[in-house]
Amino acid sequence: xxxxxxxxxxxxxxxxxxxxxxxxxxxxxxxxxxxxxxxxxxxxxxxxxxxxxxxxxxxxxxxxxxxxxxxxxxxxxxxxxxxxxxxxxxxxxxxxxxxxxxxxxxxxxxxxxxxxxxxxxxxxxxxxxxxxxxxxxxxxxxxxxxxxxxxxxxxxxxxxxxxxxxxxxxxxxxxxxxxxxxxxxxxxxxxxxxxxxxxxxxxxxx
Length: 206
Hints:
CATH 2.40.50.870; 4 helices; 5-stranded mixed β-barrel; disordered N terminus; alpha+beta
């Protein structure tokens, strides 16, 4: 590790080096004694930086009847960089690069599978007192406190039946067929997960 010494310390060290190399002159008093020992580093309260701890990988997939139990530890367990989409409806020619595959194969394996997903409900469309469209989200603060979630921390859900009763501020389990892949509207990326919702059970602890 390189350390940068202050300018005055470097200058002082240089002076000592010159004086030590200079031969003794007549009439100059000889200096005796042991050389000054190097000072020990000053004590500090800083805690040594620990190596980055990686979250443990999810274990084997469990089942709830005919449904695979999937959690956001899997769906949100990777980084997804949202691309800068080009605006639609302009006369300018825009070169569009093919999208880079960012969804791991272990997550894409859940595409078109019937899953049970635990999360928090955010209603989007209500008909006759029942929710027909909603988001199922990883964290309660994303629903109620304005925290912006990452694109892999929510699933867009459309219920296949009449809808479900709203269950707010409590964890629920949503059952349905999951679709994994980029979802685009008017050329813009709006999500990567969709679900055909069948039923809701809860509240349950995450």
